[in-house]
Design a protein that fits this description.
Strand order of the largest sheet: 6-7-8-9-10-11-12-13
Largest sheet: 8 strands, parallel
CATH superfamily of the largest domain: Metal-dependent hydrolases
Oligomer: single chain
Strand content: 15-25%
Bound molecules: fe (ii) ion
Number of helices: 15
Number of domains: 2
């Protein structure tokens, strides 16, 4: 067998160190110490972390990089963002949507982000953004897995042609069924939309990803309806609730009933930390709510949780750069996820967890899987988050597709702060007693 690439002396996110990874014909063919022999290319990782690629399971590719078109969001609220997007929509062209998407994807891929689930608005009768992003999906397939969600931004019932447009988009090849129940005219319409959209997914054999309860309203209960429909239609493992920010404000007793139901039904949760922290709490005086969903509690109930980027330079968010380590950092801080285990979870929330939610095939650093990986200028996942580590090499199907020079060598190996050994800090028996 001819080996295309060997990455030598790597650390893996699961804690293994000092192993080599060999790649051939686009797959990982060996992970073991001291792989010798000829290869098209050999990279010495110098003990640094090789991670599976970053994955963003919640994004809006049709709006990205449109900041300032046709104006800026003055209030910073979700609702002004939706109104502003409504002003921009008639001005969109196929070429402009495609050009911005490709520019963003170049930026994302250079940072090791090799799979993105994007929502695409289907409330424009021209379905112009749908067609542009289907084009983009084909163009980028060699280096990025792009999933599209048919997203009725103006409401499945509230927008007069959304229902037929959503069907048309799915017929054109859009992968996933989306929705936005909290934007319907009434709570009852929101619940009805959950029934209708989950039934479409069940009938077509598709996944579901709903913008669900993206409000500060403690009484917004669409996640309950989504969970009910998931269970009723046997869609477990195929449904994600995105945002779920109202859960931040819900009554504790209600949440104690809700979370076991979500776990039982097999609903996943996607928080979008950068967006949730700037958009939620806008109607509060002080204290201002953070709005991020209850990540530790969801986790405790065994509910899969991922972090998405959501927006980059668009009507809702003026910042961002396609860096999933920035997303992990914000999720960590807002959720106060500071234990060693919690910080490792935050790294998984932008790698393994969204890969599972997206049902990506062949993902992960395991023999037989796709030879997709990122060499980071860090020793482990926690250091990667701390440093927003430079992506020294981005590898897709065994080929290096992007490289960035090391930032400041002394930030990591050698001379970095010593590894924390929790055992060294455990209470002594004499003190404990
Ligand atoms: Fe979103």
């Amino acid at each position: 067998m001819s080996i295309d690439l060997i990455v030598k002396n790597v650390a893996l996110p699961d804690g293994r160190t000092g192993v080599d990874i060999a790649c051939a014909a686009g797959k990982i063919v060996a992970i073991e110490p001291n792989i010798d022999g000829e290869a098209g290319r050999i990279i010495d990782a110098g003990g640094r972390l090789v991670s599976p690629p970053f994955v963003d399971c919640h994004f809006h590719m049709d709006a990205t990089l449109s900041l300032g078109l046709p104006r800026l969001n003055q209030s910073g609220t979700l609702l002004e963002g939706i109104a502003l997007w409504g002003e921009l929509k008639p001005l969109l062209t196929h070429e402009a949507v495609k050009e911005r998407a490709l520019r963003y994807i170049d930026l994302a891929v250079s940072q090791g982000l090799l799979a993105i689930r994007t929502h695409v608005d289907v409330c424009d009768d021209r379905l112009l953004a749908v067609e542009a992003l289907l084009d983009v999906k084909k163009t980028v397939a060699p280096y990025l897995d792009l999933q599209l969600v048919a997203f009725p931004q103006d409401g499945y019932y509230r927008s007069p042609t959304a229902a037929q447009n959503l069907d048309r988009a799915l017929d054109l090849g859009v992968d996933i069924v989306g929705g936005i129940p909290h934007f319907e005219r009434t709570m009852a319409d929101g619940a009805r939309s959950m029934t209708a959209l989950c039934e479409i997914a069940a009938k077509r054999g598709l996944l579901v990803d709903i913008h669900c309860d993206e409000t500060d309203d403690p009484n917004s209960r669409h996640i309950e309806a989504l969970t009910y429909e998931t269970q009723r239609l046997g869609l477990g493992g195929r449904v994600a609730g995105s945002h779920l920010t109202s859960m931040h404000s819900m009554d504790n007793y209600y949440v104690s009933k809700l979370l076991p139901l979500m776990a039982e039904a097999g609903v996943s949760a996607i928080a979008n930390p950068l967006i949730n922290i700037v958009i939620q709490g806008r109607h509060d005086t002080y204290p201002k709510r953070r709005g991020q969903t209850r990540v530790p509690e969801l986790r405790k109930h065994g509910i899969p949780v991922a972090f998405g980027h959501d927006c980059v330079m668009d009507p809702w968010y003026s910042l961002g750069q396609g860096d999933m380590l920035e997303v992990a950092t914000m999720g960590l801080h807002v959720g106060q996820l500071t234990s060693r285990d919690d910080m490792r979870f935050c790294f998984k929330a932008v790698t393994e967890a969204p890969a599972k939610i997206m049902h990506l095939d062949g993902y992960g650093i395991t023999v037989g899987n796709n030879a997709d990986m990122v060499l980071l200028q860090a020793a482990d996942p926690i250091e990667a988050i701390r440093l927003k580590a430079t992506r020294l090499a981005v590898i897709r199907r065994g080929k290096v597709i992007a490289e960035t020079p090391a930032r400041i060598a002394s930030l990591d190996l050698p001379g970095r702060p010593p590894r924390v050994d929790p055992a060294a800090y455990a209470p002594k028996a004499s003190l404990a007693g």
